[in-house]
Amino acid sequence: DQQVKQNSPSLSVQEGRISILNCDYTNSMFDYFLWYKKYPAEGPTFLISISSIKDKNEDGRFTVFLNKSAKHLSLHIVPSQPGDSAVYFCAASHAGNNRKLIWGLGTSLAVNP
Amino acid sequence: GAGVSQSPSNKVTEKGKDVELRCDPISGHTALYWYRQRLGQGLEFLIYFQGNSAPDKSGLPSDRFSAERTGESVSTLTIQRTQQEDSAVYLCASSLAQGGGGTDTQYFGPGTRLTVL
Questions:
Q1: Nearest residue to A36 (alpha-carbon basis) of A97, A94, A105
Q2: Which of B7, B98, B106 is the best substitution to test chain A (most A C-beta atoms within 10 A)?
Q3: What is the pLDDT of residue B112?
């Protein structure tokens, strides 16, 4: 039973354009959401997070939007760069489960020059 | 400052052997998590340590898996009598665990790739 879902296994965008990665969740207890970026043979690298009390968090080229009523979040990368090519994971947690991260299966982003 | 480190980076073992994986968390991080990612699957939680509290072992897949942590430092994950289905990347993460309802970010090590032949 996948509590965090990333329905697009892959995404390809042109350099300079916007990348939008989507994530849906089912557990209404989740109150903290994170995006990680992962290169092959490396551990996940933290990218950006959002608490459920907010609907948007921005950090440079990266913005995360949270729609609690729809149980949906998205990561926007603008402008996309070839170095952004990686697998992006959405993860969620809540205080009641010791903040263990529940992960989506990832979306592989390819940014083409 | 040093990040989370894990050793070995790769481990190949024969079915039935025991293996021990090591994690050094970021200094000052009181919370430590182990996850694993099997080929083609998502990351799955294994075990959580927080200070001197009893660990949350709810993610350990069988009693062949165990983990220890000394205080707020090094942790070791031990897999006894390894099976082929144990082959995976084992990832360790640590966080400040600011307590209460506070949220904090987990920072990951590079992982140990375990291959059981």
A1: A105
A2: B106
A3: 97
Question: Could you tell me which residues come within 8 angstroms of residue B99 by beta carbon, excluding any fewer than 6 positions away?
Answer: none
Residue B37 CA to chain centroid, in angstroms?
Answer: 11
Decide: B78 and B23 in contact? Cβ < 8 Å.
no
Quickly list DSSP for A17-69.
S-EEEEEEE--TT--EEEEEEE-TTS--EEEEEEETT-SEEEETTEEEEEETT
Query: Between A41, A98, A103, which is nearest B43 by CB?
Result: A103
What are B46-63's pLDDT values in tens digits? Answer: 999 988 888 999 999 999
In what helix (H) or strand (E) does residue B12 lie, and over which residues does it extend?
A: strand B10-13
Residue B40: other Cβ atoms inside 10 A = 6
Question: Which residues on A lie below 8 Å from B108 (Cβ)?
Answer: 36, 43-46
Among all residues of chain A, which has the CA nearest to that of B91? A43
